[in-house]
Every structure is written in C-alpha cells, then in structure tokens.
C-alpha cells in the first residue's frame, strides 16, 4: 500500500511528465501523442514506474524504446520542474500500459459468449 506522500509525488510526476511529453519535447518523438496513464513511486521516492499509452502510433514497442533511450533528457526536464519540491529526482522506468487493449480483448471475448437462459424455478418451493 502506498503512503500519502508516495501518492502525492506520483500525481505530481504524472502531471509534470504529461506536460513535458506534450509541450517540451514532442519533437523527440515525431509528434506522437503520448499519455502518462499512471505513475508508481517506490517507498524511498527514488524510482518511478511510468506507464504510457500511445495513440495514432503504428509501432508502440519502437516508440517505447525511443522513450527509454531519451530517459536522461526527460529526467533532466523533470528535474527542472520538481527541483523545489523533491530532494532527489526519481529514476524513471517506462512501461507500455496495455490496459485499454486488454479491456477491448475481454469485451470481444464476452460479446462472443452464448449464455443459455436460466432454468425456470418452480414457484412451489
């Protein structure tokens, strides 16, 4: 379970990273629309797991690798934003958030199910 401090820092990092992706460095990723879906911070606030979602991108894995390569640049931009709020800038680990794709897959599976009607119960019982 995350502490209140971890949750606050995670929300701040999510907000700042979203702005960095959309305003500061969109040119690094060919203008791809990158969404920061969630951020999880370690208890000592030194490591942040950043989950990303991409829209209108053909090769998501390649874009994720590009983001991981540019991690130092992103961390530097993040450091400029949070330098008065955090003692250390957390190390950023990026992951692909496939929750929407998984939910879509599950919806297709459930829509393909044929559920027989429930047997009628006797009213005498």
Task: Give me a quick take on this structure.
The protein has 125 residues and is α+β, with helices and mostly antiparallel strands.
Helix-strand blueprint:
Blueprint: H1 4-24, E1 33-41, E2 47-55, H2 60-69, H3 71-82, E3 91-96, H4 99-111
Helix pairs in contact: 1-3
Overview of this protein structure:
With 125 residues, this protein is α+β, with helices and mostly antiparallel strands. The protein has four helices and three strands. It is elongated and about 75 Å long. Helices cover 45% and strands 19% of the residues. The termini are far apart. It has a three-stranded mixed sheet with strand order 1-2-3. The longest helix is centred in the first third of the chain and has 21 residues, at 4-24. Helix 1 crosses helix 3 (71-82). The mean pLDDT is 90.
Described by strand count, sense and barrel closure, the largest sheet is:
3 strands, mixed
Average of pLDDT: 90
Helix percentage range: 40-55%
Strand content: 15-25%
> How many β strands by DSSP?
3
- Gyration radius from CA atoms, angstroms: 21 Å
- Oligomeric form: single chain
Unreliable runs: none
- Strand adjacency order, main sheet: 1-2-3
**Globular, elongated, flat, extended or rod-shaped: what is the shape?**
elongated
> How large is the count of helical segments?
4
Provide the succession of SSEs.
HEEHHEH
Summary tags:
125 residues, alpha+beta, 3-stranded mixed β-sheet, 4 helices, 3 strands, elongated
């Amino acid at each position: 379970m995350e502490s209140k401090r971890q949750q606050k820092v995670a929300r701040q990092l999510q907000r700042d990273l979203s702005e960095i992706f959309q305003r500061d460095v969109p040119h690094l990723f060919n203008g791809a629309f990158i969404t920061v879906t969630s951020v999880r911070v370690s208890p000592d606030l030194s490591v942040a797991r950043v989950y990303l979602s991409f829209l209108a991108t053909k090769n998501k894995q390649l874009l994720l690798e590009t983001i991981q390569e540019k991690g130092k640049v992103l961390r530097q931009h993040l450091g400029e934003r949070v330098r008065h709020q955090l003692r250390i800038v957390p190390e950023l680990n990026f992951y692909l958030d496939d929750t929407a794709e998984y939910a879509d897959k599950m919806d297709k599976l459930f829509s393909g199910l044929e559920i027989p009607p429930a047997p009628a119960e006797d009213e005498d019982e």
